[in-house]
Design goal:
Elements (H helix, E strand, L loop, with lengths): L8 H20 L7 E8 L27 E4 L1 H4 L8 E6 L10 E8 L9 E5 H5 L7 H6 L3 E7 L10 E4 L7 E7 L9 E6 L6 E2 L1 E4 L2 E5 L7 E6 L6 E8 L8 E3 L6
Length: 260
C-alpha cells in the first residue's frame, strides 16, 4: 500500500497511523543490538578463561560456570566507569578462511586499561578468543594477536540462577556495600536502592566501583529489600527482604527473582 495525495481520506489516515507506529517502533529498537565494528585481542593462557578477579569485582566467579570462558575486558567506551559491568556481547570475526560463522558470547568482568580511548576494544580470555575460529584453528587465530570483529549487545542468560547480592568485605552497619551477581537481561545497573524492614522509604545507593554499590548511614538495620534499575532499558526489579537481619560481610544472598 502506498501513501499518496490521490488516496482517499480513509487510506490517507490509515497510512499516517501505520507510518507513525513504525516510526515509534523503530525509535524503541535498541541501537546497540546492531552489529558494529570493533577490535579484539586476548590475554592470559591460550586456553584460559582470562584473569582472576577483574575491575568489576566478581573475584573468583570468573573461573567457574556460568562465567567461565565467557569473561572479557573492555575499553572505556563500554566499561563506562564500571556501569558497563555485567553486560553481555556477541562477537564474530569475518575472515572466512579461519573464522567460524558462530559468535562468542562474553560477559564484561574487567576493564582494559591499556585500550585506547575513543575506540571499541574487547580483550578476551584465550578460550573465548579461540572460540571464534573454525574447528582446530583456535591457535592460528590467537597467533594473529589483534583481530577486527563485529559485535552487538545480547541479553545475559544464567539458566537456573536468580539475582544474588554479595556483601562486600568491610561492610558495617554504617557502610554497606553490595555486588550484584547473575543479572539476566540487560546485565548492567543504572541505579540501586535499599529499604530497611522497618521503613517504607527506598534509600539510594551510590555506585563506587565495578558492579559494587554502597550506602552510608545508620545504624542500618536488616532485613533489607534491594531494588535495581538497569542502565540500558530502565527495567526495575525489587527483591524483598533478600538480605537477612543477621547478614555478614563476604556472604552472598540469593533472591527468588530475575529479569527473565
Amino acid at each position: 500500500m502506498q501513501c499518496s495525495s490521490g488516496s482517499s481520506w480513509f487510506v490517507t489516515i490509515l497510512c499516517f497511523v501505520l507510518l507513525t507506529c513504525l516510526a515509534v517502533v523503530g525509535a524503541q529498537l535498541p541501537s546497540d543490538l546492531r552489529w558494529k565494528p570493533a577490535i579484539a585481542t586476548w590475554y592470559g593462557d591460550a586456553e584460559g578463561d582470562g584473569s582472576v578477579g577483574g575491575a568489576c569485582g566478581y573475584g573468583t566467579m570468573v573461573d567457574v560456570k556460568p562465567l567461565r570462558a565467557r569473561v572479557g575486558a573492555v575499553g572505556p567506551l563500554l566499561f563506562k566507569n564500571g556501569e558497563g559491568c555485567g553486560a553481555c556481547y556477541k562477537l564474530r570475526c569475518l575472515d572466512r578462511s579461519i573464522c567460524s560463522r558462530r559468535a562468542v558470547t562474553i560477559i564484561v568482568t574487567d576493564e582494559c586499561p591499556g585500550c585506547p580511548i575513543g575506540t571499541t576494544h574487547f580483550d578476551l580470555g584465550g578460550a573465548a578468543f579461540g572460540h571464534m575460529a573454525v574447528a582446530g584453528a583456535g591457535g592460528q587465530l590467537r597467533n594473529r594477536g589483534q583481530l577486527p570483529v563485529i559485535y552487538r549487545r545480547t541479553p545475559c542468560k544464567y539458566p537456573g540462577k536468580n539475582i544474588a547480592f554479595h556483601v562486600n568485605e568491610g561492610s558495617t552497619d554504617h557502610w554497606l556495600s553490595l555486588l550484584v551477581e547473575f543479572e539476566d537481561g540487560d546485565g548492567d545497573i543504572g541505579s540501586m536502592h535499599i529499604r530497611e524492614a522497618s521503613s517504607s522509604e527506598w534509600l539510594q545507593m551510590k555506585h563506587i566501583w565495578g558492579a559494587s554499590w554502597c550506602i552510608i548511614g545508620g545504624p542500618l538495620k536488616g532485613p533489607f529489600s534491594v531494588k535495581i534499575t538497569t542502565l540500558s532499558t530502565g527495567k526495575t526489579l525489587s527483591a524483598r527482604d533478600v538480605i537477612p537481619r543477621n547478614w555478614s560481610p563476604k556472604a552472598t544472598y540469593t533472591s527468588r527473582l530475575n529479569f527473565f
